[in-house]
Give the backbone structure.
Amino acid sequence: MTDTPVTLPTSTFQFSATEAAKHVVLILGALIVLLPFYVMVSYTLKTPVEIMSGSGGLFGTQTPFTDAFCLKAGGTDVECTKSALAYNFGSAFKKAPLLRYLLNGVAVTAAIFLIQVVVALPCAYALAKLRFWGRDAVFSLVLFCLLIPVHAIALPLFIMLAKLGLTNSYAALIVPWTISVFGIFLMRQFFMTVPDDLIDAARMDGMSEFSIIWQVMLPTAIPALMAFAIFSVVAHWNDYFWPRIVITGDKSLFTPPLGLREFRAGLDGNDFGPMMATACVIVTPLIICFLLAQRRFIEGITLTGMK
Amino acid sequence: MSRAYLWFIGPALFLMFALLIVPILVAFGLSLTNYSLGNSGAGFVGLDNYADLFGRSSYIKMFKASLTYVLIVVPASVGLGLGAALLITSVKRFGDLYKTVFFLPVMAALLAMAIAWEFTLNPSIGVVNRALEAGCGTMLETWTWYADGCANSFPLWLGDKRYAMGSIAFIGIWQAFGFNMVLYLAGLTGVSRTLYDAAEMDGALSAWEKFRLVTWPMLGPTNVFVITITTIRSFQVFDTVEALTRGGPSKSTYVMMYAIYEKAIKQNLLGIGTAITVVFLAFVLIVTLVQRWLIERKVHYA
């Protein structure tokens, strides 16, 4: 910069000024976006006293404190003196069966995705590569179903599940999502780009249509499938509306967001830190995956903007 | 050719009917009844539920709350999304970093972040009001709103009916604009460099002129898409309302999804719940039809 000829000082200065102004706006925006994340993390690092009084600086003083509940429960002074972090995450897992909730979340999310693939992939293959009577009608039906928002069918599905006695069950959390018309649409569009020669060669080798799907088409479809996986997993791990409706009493079936919500219901000042620790545990896995594979995540979630 | 295809499309077709088509029809049907779970039958009440929806003040408040939310969140999150995309493409460095940060709220479980926002906005221990109180005694007090806050108290945000909808909408904007930004970033890469060069040759030199003459028209399809999807999603707001305000104070945040949940699930009034569902579906359908019409009509320049 210092070597810039003196003939152009104003224009260079002006230029960097607009650039700086843009960064100021962007940084302000970033700070607001990060504010609740900061609150969440800072609460997990503060003792209940620091949270209530607003002391302890930005991230708490990190001096060990004595947990009164632990003393009441008969713990010794040494056992009950701990860091804020240990207290908050320790209570998060102890006061509520958070581990159970997390396992439920993983099981439900994984089951939904696997069933969606098992249902959607063959259908997408048939729509893209097989010729049969009524194919266009089926595809039109898929396009029509794309327009149906999940919130619009929640109540009838709830009634159907209630009639079958299936509310408060894993089935209630999984079954309504087993059909993903979006998955069918996405995979069909992808299969259209796969050359017919590949399939003809496989048929010539004597492969059945069934094994063509799983041994020839599936491997070629990995990128599209990844995008769909991200969409599906993010949507169902974070979902709150549907679990709230069908899981009414049985806490052993709670998904992570339901568990957090339940935690909040019995709130007292000592629980703010543990609650934010729970929130951290729920949010962190997806954030880490996102940071590791940003491009895929953004692709997966936006291409599904279709929904 | 074997009949293998029947096995391939059969399960999907069956599930589409059982889990999508039939429920929609059931929703229409039940909205004409006073059905409750546990009752042996349901009485046909004709359009009574709809008459209630458009006649009773609590449902009028519901429509008002939902429309207010949509009318705040859609323009703000679309505008901020476009603004962020334009700024990010125009800065020389750190563009990807900003993009990552702005996209974080899209990924994070909304319910968890809603509770983090609740602590942030808490009137006694939240950082927002603490920061506002720290500004008392400075020249900020020349602003009457601020002076009033210092003299009495700063807003209760989620607990005050004048601010609750604004606060909920703010969280909605916070969550949605990063998604819109990414869609706009994709749209912007589709605008050809040569168009800007041509505009420059025609004398459009300022950044604003280039935006008005090239970027904005070329973003037409993206705009339609982004506005449609944001509108539909805004009609679906539920997590923040259920966790933070439960529709209150005085029904100021009583949005449609929460009303459906409260009436149908908590109070077992499935007739009125499905009637709200049908109205919601109608809103979504209108938005979708407007989108189709716009796309076919005039937004294609490329």
